[in-house]
UniProtKB/TrEMBL annotation:
It catalyses: ATP + protein L-histidine = ADP + protein N-phospho-L-histidine. The keyword Heme does not apply. Residues 213-267 form the HAMP domain. One of its GO terms (molecular function) is ATP binding. PANTHER family: HYBRID SIGNAL TRANSDUCTION HISTIDINE KINASE C, TWO-COMPONENT HISTIDINE KINASE. It is an enzyme of class 2 (transferase). Residues 593-808 form the Histidine kinase domain. It is found in: Cell membrane. The chain crosses the membrane at residues 16-36, 189-208. This is histidine kinase. InterPro entries: CheY-like_superfamily, GAF, GAF-like_dom_sf, HAMP_dom, HATPase_C_sf, HATPase_dom, His_kinase_dom, HisK_dim/P_dom. The keyword Thylakoid does not apply. Residues 262-314 form a coiled coil. It comes from Anoxybacteroides voinovskiense.
Length: 958
């Protein structure tokens, strides 16, 4: 301990460092304890919040599972579909699994109570209520189902849902309370930390005061003694600090010894003073010599000044001509030359001259290659020439005068002559020393020219970069770390209404103010720019803003720039996303429209179904309700098909079964369908040609005309005439669909075939629609190598024109053999209701029909009976062969491979089915009559071998 104490007594520095180290250790320990406490609080809060959130998720899963089970039970009781029944028990398994997950987290009485009530409700609902309701429903006892609902089934469900909701609200409230408690504890901790800092500051002040007292007092006494000694007082003594071991004690003892030493040597100093007086005379004699040297030094100083002017002239500018002028003028001063000139040996022969006439400059440039350049190129050494001045240069002098010309080559880094300098003076020749000195100046000139050349190249690259940026559609800006604008392309400059050169080097606040004047959300954009540039955070790299007074949306994003690992700036890119923004808006509006469009027919279906289930109705009213349900189901099917068509078109998976079809029957069938939906419209067909055959997909073409005629009906709310005109345009078939309705504004026509677009008009908004119909029409027409156009006049009507490639049909009537409708057809379908429907449809058409539920039985029957056609579902009973297996097995069997197979499935995998060998592919739901037509068409195609289809040509018309 004594050694440590002595160690610190010997040095003030050690004492100070020791005290400060103690202070820092105390400060760090206290700060670390505060941070540890704060982190402990945060971790505890996070653990509690995670546990509560997990409970919340499980409660939501229970709510979703029970809700799904309720809807599935109602769906099964309403429609009797097996998948609803299966889903009920799947939801039960989900409920049980979720309760098992929630059980380890049930720490409170409320949690355990919820689990007990959920378990009881699960047992009651699934094992008692649902099981009995399903049994009664399947037994046909609908009244028992309704009675069970009225006797408390619905009330118990609502009561349990309310308990789940209250439990969820309780969990949310617990999370909020935990967060408030955390904030309160953190605030207390912060106040404690501030108090700790205040106490540490007091301790620091005490340490500083103690050190000042320990050092200041001895130094003041020491200064007083030194002052007395300086005033030659004889009684100078002190009794402080001599016993100290630190620097002050050592200084005190050394000063005391110095006083004694000075007094002892005072006599010696007096003698030396006399000797110095003697030396003064000698110094005076040397003064004259120094004055002469001073004149030489001043002359040299003048030369150095001129050289500095020369060097400054080289470095103060990057303009080539300005630098050349500076070189000539300053070297003339350095050489004391009367005239001079420099010429660059580049393509432009850039030059600068001093004291030389324009005629003399041209003469020098013209005679440059007549020997002087060759000598310099060969020797690369300067040379001087003495010549007599001609009369034109002598002025008023009559005697002989001479000029001394010095020619200097400027050599590049590759030792090539890149410039020639020539200077003339009349007062005397250039000495070898001067020529050597001036030759060194040419190296400075060479360095300056190289710097200018590099600058010009970099400036050329900069202009090229600026040109590239100016031709980019996005606005681009480069700023440094302080936000100063380094570069901006013309697109952004034009947007800000400033000149690119004026905004260059503009500070952050200036260009930021110009940008904020253009946007709607100034505050958020200002905060975003501050975060990126002032706080150096790129957590949010992008920002989207709207332009004032314009329907323009700009997406702005920032990217840091690095040289190696050091960041030196930021690039801002402003991209116009107005079109994308409008599409997003249209999609949002589309979602709202679709929800309305889907709910309306679904409400009708559910409402009329419930009436038919719960009330005894007369046959005519039942038929009316069933007709309404059928129409609304068709409407739902059309909407869903539109969505699926758009998805397939966007993904490139849309397929077309193109055949040679007569367009007139397709249009007639569509018109007959549309007549059911209106009594105030008159439909007319104007057929102006007998050649109406096209190569196309019948269903898709029907979809096109259904959309066009449906729009004609919808957008003619007051009724009127709807005309379909069929005529030829060269080698194409044209079809006009004309109505007398509202018409289309001119500004809306360019957007008419855009997905989700609907004309912004209150009259049209009341009509409804998804905005997909015309987009689908355009894609289908385009896939048939056709075109679609529209002309319209507001309040007078619109005309949509479709043109398709025309083909001619030549038929051999001898081969038109009727089909034996007693042929066998086998249906492979596990849905008994649908199988019965298809069986009835085909039987009515004259076919002999058998149906099977699984693939193995179907394969055996097909091998035994060799049917004329097979109708095959893909999704068969679980555990048996799938439809794909049946299809592949039939195509692998030589005896069965020739049998036509029509796939009937809800799966949209038409391409796969046709690739595996299916003859056709029908996607559920479809009209049963469509199946009959498909089979008849396929069998007729096998019989009619004489049909010839050829394209229409102008020669055939002649």
């Amino acid at each position: 301990m004594e050694k440590i104490s002595r160690y610190f007594r010997q040095s003030l520095t050690r004492q100070f460092i020791g005290l400060m180290s103690l202070f820092i250790v105390l400060f760090l320990v206290g700060g670390a304890l505060v941070l540890w406490k704060q982190q402990t609080l945060v971790n505890t809060f996070e653990a509690k919040r995670e546990q509560l959130q997990q409970k919340e998720r499980y409660a939501e899963q229970l709510d979703r599972a029970f809700t799904q089970a309720f809807f599935d039970a109602r769906g099964y009781l309403a429609f009797g579909r097996k998948e609803f029944k299966q889903s009920i028990y799947q939801q039960k398994e989900q409920v049980v699994a979720t309760m098992q997950k929630l059980k380890p987290l049930a720490k409170t009485a409320e949690d355990r109570q919820l689990l007990e009530e959920a378990a009881a409700f699960t047992s009651y609902y699934f094992d008692d209520l649902v099981k009995k309701a399903i049994a009664d429903f399947e037994a046909g006892n609908i009244q028992a189902v309704l009675k069970a609902s009225e006797n408390g089934g619905t009330a118990s469900i609502q009561r349990f849902q309310k308990q789940l909701s209250e439990y969820h609200s309780s969990l949310v409230e617990q999370i909020e309370n935990e967060y408030k408690q955390l904030k309160m504890t953190q605030a207390q901790l912060q106040y404690s930390f501030l108090l700790f800092i205040f106490l540490m500051m007091l301790l620091l002040m005490s340490i500083m005061r103690m050190m000042a007292k320990r050092i200041g007092r001895p130094l003041n006494a020491f200064a007083t003694a030194a002052e007395k000694f300086a005033q030659e007082e004889t009684d100078v003594h002190w009794s402080f600090a001599n016993e100290r071991d630190d620097e002050i004690g050592k200084l005190s003892r050394a000063f005391q010894k110095m006083i004694y030493s000075i007094r002892e040597k005072e006599d010696s100093l007096v003698a030396q003073n006399e000797e110095l007086l003697a030396q003064q005379d000698e110094l005076e004699s040397q003064q004259a010599e120094l004055e002469q040297a001073l004149e030489t030094m001043q002359r040299r100083e003048e030369e150095l000044r001129r050289r500095n002017e020369f060097i400054n002239g080289l470095s103060n500018s990057l303009d080539k001509q300005e630098v050349l002028d500076s070189i000539v003028c300053n070297i003339c001063k350095v050489m004391d030359a009367d005239r001079g000139m420099i010429v660059l040996l580049n393509d432009k022969k850039s030059y600068a001259a001093f004291g030389v006439s324009a005629q003399g400059v041209q003469q020098f440039l013209h005679e440059l290659d007549n020997g002087m350049y060759q000598r310099l190129q060969k020797t690369k050494q300067p040379f001087s020439v003495k010549r007599e001045l001609p009369t034109s240069e002598k002025g008023y002098y009559e005697e002989a005068l001479y000029s001394y010309d010095l020619v200097l080559p400027v050599l590049s880094a590759q030792r090539e002559v890149e410039a020639i300098m020539m200077f003339s003076r009349f007062r005397g020749d250039f000495s070898p020393h001067e020529i050597e000195e001036y030759e060194r100046l040419t190296k400075q000139v060479s360095i300056s020219l190289q710097k200018i050349r590099l600058y010009e190249e970099s400036e050329k690259d900069r202009r090229m970069t600026q040109d590239i940026l100016n031709n980019i559609q996005e606005g681009i800006q480069l700023v440094d770390m302080r936000g100063v604008n380094l570069m901006m392309n013309t697109q952004l400059a034009n947007f800000l209404h400033v000149d690119v050169n004026e905004i260059s080097e503009a500070p952050y606040e200036q260009w930021k103010s110009l940008l904020l004047q253009k946007v709607v959300d100034e505050k958020n954009l200002s905060d975003y720019l501050d975060r990126v540039l002032l706080h150096d955070t790129l957590e949010t790299k992008s920002f989207t803003y709207h332009v004032k007074g314009e329907k323009k949306v700009i997406h702005m994003y920032a990217e840091p720039l690095y040289r190696g690992t050091e960041r030196f700036g930021t690039v801002f890119v402003h991209r116009d996303i107005t079109k994308e923004f409008e599409v997003d808006q249209m999609k949002s509006e589309f979602v709202s429209t679709v929800s309305h469009e889907l709910r309306t027919p679904l409400s009708s279906v559910l409402g009329f179904t419930e009436l038919m289930l719960n009330k005894e109705l007369k046959p005519e009213r039942q038929r009316k309700y069933l007709t309404t349900i059928y129409q609304e189901a068709k409407r739902l099917t059309a909407l869903i098909n539109d969505f699926l068509d758009v998805q397939r078109m966007e993904s490139g998976r849309q397929t077309y079964d193109k055949k040679y079809e007569d367009i007139v029957p397709i249009i007639q069938n569509v018109i007959e369908t549309q007549k059911v939906n209106t009594t105030i419209h008159e439909f007319m067909i104007q057929k102006e040609t007998n050649r109406t055959i096209v190569l196309g997909d019948r269903d898709k073409l029907a979809q096109v005309f259904t959309n066009l005629l449906s729009n004609a009906v919808k957008y003619s709310p007051d009724g009127g005439k709807i005309t379909v005109r069929i005529y030829e345009q060269g080698d194409r078939l044209a079809i006009d669909v004309t109505d007398e309705g509202l018409g289309i504004p001119a500004e809306a026509i360019p957007h008419l075939f855009t997905k989700f677009y609907r004309v912004d008009n209150s009259d049209r908004r009341r009509i409804g629609g998804t905005g997909l119909g015309l987009a689908i029409v355009k894609e289908i027409v385009k896939a048939h190598d056709g075109e679609i156009a529209v002309t319209s006049e507001v309040k007078k009507g619109s005309t949509f024109t479709i043109s398709l490639p025309l083909v001619a049909v030549e038929t051999d009537p001898q081969n038109d053999v009727p089909i034996d409708k007693g042929m066998n057809v086998i249906i492979v379908e596990d849905d008994r209701n649908l199988a019965s429907l298809l069986e009835a449809e085909l039987s009515d058409s004259g076919f002999s029909v058998k149906s099977f539920k699984n693939g193995k039985e179907a394969i055996g029957a097909i091998k035994a009976e060799k049917p004329a056609a097979v109708v095959l579902d893909i999704m068969l009973e679980e555990g048996e062969m799938s439809g794909w297996d049946v299809l592949e097995k039939m195509k692998a069997d030589k005896e069965l491979s020739s049998i036509p197979i029509i796939v009937s499935s809800a799966l949209e995998e038409k391409e796969k089915g046709l690739m595996l060998g299916a003859s056709d592919y029908l996607i559920k739901p479809y009209q049963p009559s469509q199946l009959t037509k498909t089979i008849l068409h396929m069998l007729l195609k096998q019989e009619r071998q004489g049909e010839i289809l050829v394209p229409v040509t102008d020669e055939e018309d002649k």
